[in-house]
From TrEMBL:
Cited PROSITE patterns: PROKAR_LIPOPROTEIN
InterPro entries in alphabetical order: DUF6287
Signal peptide limits: 1-24
Protein's name in the database: DUF6287 domain-containing protein
Renumbered residue ranges of the record's region Disordered: 26-53
Keywords: Signal
Biased composition (Basic and acidic residues): 40-51
Organism per entry: Enterococcus xiangfangensis
Residue stretches making up the DUF6287 domain: 310-342
């Protein structure tokens, strides 16, 4: 009986110990579960804190592109501040900004003020960070012409060939009213060319863009300066027009010297604020000089103005100098003003010399000093009349030659009426 009581006591003790152990285990499990729950809540709170839009960190550093081919660079200055560097027509521009992120579904957006290096405080930068990984930066002051949009995704296809260095759309000769007026006033003999050369566009007077092999060439015209497009610096597009860098290739252009031309497409407002239906080229540091596309037969406008009054040779030979009156100028820059009474601005007078044409078929009058002394002859060429000994003049206009002898005269010696 005593033995049975001992066994019963041991069984009860073992049962109590087992119960205590189970309670402890259950308590430990409960404590661990509660601890795990606290950690999860804490982690969740932390995650929410990390994902708070305003404090979200998005890596913006890198190169950004426009559809036109321009680029911008973004770099991080501090934990919150960033800097963007990009090009405008005036040169390199920088600006700093601090994003203020707001969640928009799976995307994030920020729109904050920019601090630009030129002091313009009217610009804001609008950033969209898409879940796809694309980041777009739009800088604007509210004026659509000033807005620039960049993306961290490089354009797959550039639709604009000019930005790839293809100047085909600007290929050809160029001119302006100043150049054409100077040529007309020279009697179409400027730089030693003949009127025929000008009428058939057989001169090197006019600037132009052309392709030679793999190179795009800019010929500056009468200056004979020759340039080649810099392949290491592709054209840039600003406000709808292009800035193209050329390098001098001959001594006149100064070999290796940089020349930046502004190429303005038709229908686009240029640096002068004007819009034309023709392509234009602007040059010099201030873009003050400009050229337009070359016009075939441009000379007709000047010719028609200056052929209204022909020489009445028969009247001149009888002393009526009305059709000879006016200011005459030759290609060498010399001028002679003849008055209706036959006097000139050089204290000379016109005297009818022959009543019949000379043997060469051309009529002459004399020009002599009023106070006496030796003189010269003036050959009179009506419209259509040609020098039988060789004619280098514009036969569609009245002309005169001041000479001592007949002969074939250089184009620049012929005088043409200026008024």
């Amino acid at each position: 009986m005593k033995t049975k009581r001992i066994i019963a006591s041991l069984f009860i003790a073992f049962f109590l110990l087992a119960g205590c152990s189970t309670n402890a285990s259950e308590k430990k499990t409960t404590d661990k579960t509660e601890s795990s729950t606290v950690e999860k809540i804490s982690d969740s709170s932390s995650a929410e804190k990390k994902q708070s839009p305003k404090k979200k960190k998005i890596a913006l550093a890198g190169t950004y592109y426009t559809n036109e081919g321009s680029t911008a660079t973004v770099e991080q200055l501090s934990d919150q501040e960033w800097k963007i560097t990009y090009q405008v027509s005036e040169g390199e521009m920088t600006a700093t900004f601090i994003p203020d992120w707001q969640s928009k579904g799976a995307d994030y957006q920020s729109k904050t003020q920019m601090s630009k290096s030129d002091g313009d405080s009217g610009f804001k930068i609008d950033i969209t960070a898409a879940a796809s990984g694309e980041i777009k930066l739009t800088m604007s002051d509210g004026n659509p012409d000033h807005q620039m949009t960049f993306s961290n995704q490089k354009p797959k296809v550039t639709a604009d060939p000019v930005l790839q260095g293809d100047l085909s759309t600007f290929e050809g000769s160029y001119s302006n009213d100043t150049t054409e007026k100077a040529i007309a006033e020279s009697g179409f003999t400027l730089n030693g060319y003949t009127p025929t050369n000008y009428y058939q566009n057989q001169t090197t007077v006019f600037p132009g863009i052309s392709k030679s092999g793999e190179d795009w060439i800019y010929w500056a015209g009468s200056s004979h300066a020759h340039y080649k497009m810099n392949k290491n610096q592709l054209p840039k597009k600003t406000n709808g027009y292009y800035e193209v860098t050329f390098l001098g290739t001959n001594a006149i252009a100064i070999e290796g010297k940089e020349l930046v031309l502004t190429l303005v497409p038709s229908g686009v407002s240029g640096p002068d604020g004007k819009t034309s239906d023709e392509n234009r080229i602007f040059f010099d540091s201030d873009n003050q000089e400009s050229l337009r596309e070359y016009h075939d037969e441009w000379w007709k406008a000047y010719q028609s103005k200056q052929t209204e009054t022909d020489l009445d040779v028969e009247a001149i030979l009888t002393g009526d100098f009305a059709t000879l009156a006016g200011t005459w100028k030759n290609g060498e820059g010399r001028t002679l003003t003849i008055n209706a009474d036959g006097t000139t601005d050089n204290q000379e007078k016109i005297v009818a010399q022959r009543s019949e044409p000379a043997e060469d078929g051309i009529s002459y009058v004399s020009i002599m000093p009023i106070n006496g002394g030796g003189g010269a002859a003036i050959a009179l060429y009506k419209i259509g009349a040609t020098n039988p000994e060789g004619d280098q003049s514009d036969t569609t206009r009245p002309r005169i030659i001041i000479t001592q002898n007949s002969g074939s005269f250089p184009a620049e010696e012929y005088y043409y009426r200026q008024d």
